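Example 3.2
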Amino acid sequence: MIKNKNFYEILQVQYDADAEVIDAAYRRLCKKYHPDLCKESQASEMIIHLNLAHETLSDPIKREAYDIRYLSTKLLKKTDSRIEESKEILSSYIIHLKKEEFEKAYLLLSAKDKRNIPENKFIEWQSEVSKVYSIGNHDIKFFRKEISKKIEMYEFDVTIREKLIRDNTIQNYSFSKKVIYEKGLWKILLDYQEVDSFISRFYIKSIHEQYNNEVKKEILSYKHFLNAVKMESERFMRYNRIYSIAMISLNESAVKEELKKYLHSVIKITSKNLRMLDSVGLFKNNVIVVLLPETKFFGAKKVCDKLSKLFKESGEINRHNCQYKFSICECKDENYHDTIKRCYLLLK
C-alpha cells in the first residue's frame, strides 16, 4: 500500500540519491501514473503521493527534517525486530528447561558460557533444579539494550510461574536475563564462572524436600540450622545451659546417587531417634549436623553411640557398605561458629 511507503520508496530511489536522480524519477513516475495514460484505480492517489514526496525531497531544508524522522523510524523498526528475535530465543531456552531438554538448552548458550560451563555440569545443575521446582508459564519484557561495535545485547525481565514439587505451592520467580548476537546467531548469556555452587545448593535443597516429606522432624538448611544454634547460644549466655553439636560424615567418594541413598537412611534414623528440641541439618553434601540442647559431651556421645548401633543394624546402610564417622563438640562459650568449625575438623 502507498500509505505504508516512505518518500524514497514512493519515488523508487536510494536514500542517498542526489537532486537530479530524484527529479528524473519524479518525471518518469508522473508520466507512468498520469490519469490520462494510466487506467489503474490508484493512479490519482499515486500522483498526490509523488507530488508530496518530490516537494519534500527536492527541498534541502525539508529533506533534512524528513531524513531525521525517516532514520529514527527506520532504526526503531530495526531495533523492534531485533528485540523480538532475541526474545524468541530466550523463550525457547526457557521452554527447553521446562521440558527438561537440557542438551537443547545448552546449545543456546553463548561461547563464553560454554567455555566456563561444561555441558555435563549444566545438565547436572538443571537436573537438580528440576527435582525441586517445575516450570510453568513465563512472561518476558524488554528492559534495555547495549549496542556498540563490539556487542549487540538485549536484557529482559523474566517472570516464571514455578511449582515447588514438595507441596505443589505456586510462586512467581523474577530475574533478568541477557541475550547477545554472536556470529550471526542469538545466544543466551548466563555470565557465570562456574555452576558447582548452584549444583551443591540445589542438591542439598532436593534432599531437604525429599526427606521433609518422609520424616516428622524437619531437616534444616545450614542457614536455618545456624539460626537454631545462635538461639541456643543466647540461652547458654543467659542461663548457662551447655549444649553440644554432633556431626555425621558419610563416605564422600561414593557415587552421588548412592550418597543420596546413604543420606536418606542416615537422616531417617537420626531424625526418628532424637528429641523434639533437637535439630538436624545438612552441613555439606555428605555431612549431617545435629544440635543437642542442654546436653553435655557425654550425653551427646550416648546419642551418637545409639545412632551408630542403629546404623549398623540398618539393612539399607549395610547393603551399600556405607562408611561413616562421628564428631562431637561441647559448647561452653558464645563462639558457636568456632565450635562448629572445630567439630568439622575432627572429622578429618
